[in-house]
Amino acid sequence: CKVTASHMLKDWNSKKCLGFDFTTKGVHMAVCSGRDTQLWRVSGDALRFEYNYQCLEYDEHSGRVRLSDCDESLKQKWYFRANNLKTRVDDQCLDFFNKQGDVRVNPCSNGINQ
Predict the structure, then answer these.
(1) How far apart (Å, rounded) are the C-alpha atoms in residues 55 and 71?
(2) Residues facing residue 19 across a β-bridge
(3) What is the b/e burial string over 8-46, where b = at least 16 CB atoms within 10 angstroms of the residue's CB?
(4) Residues in the chain with pLDDT < 70?
(5) What is the rounded distance in angstroms from the CA atom of residue 37 to the CA atom of residue 19?
């Protein structure tokens, strides 16, 4: 397993970063702060949340993403393609919408929210 340095996952259009909100217990996009709630580590095909080392996980039934204990399952495998973060489950893209920065997985559209 190759582990690299911690990184913020930033959307260049909105200038927001992928993070975790401990109040709502949800993965979301928010203004980049550089805090540990927005730091991720690439570990093979997994994205580990630096704060608690849980992995970003996709629920293909609801389209939602969440943090979960890492188990190397397909629902925790991600890759970058053409500036999109995609799931290996069904090759769909991480997508965010609304002012609250809710994050889901949707078909890739090359929209500014992906």
Answers:
(1) 8
(2) 28
(3) bbebeeeebbbbbeeeeebbbbbebeeeebbbbbbbeeb
(4) 1-5, 98, 112-114
(5) 5
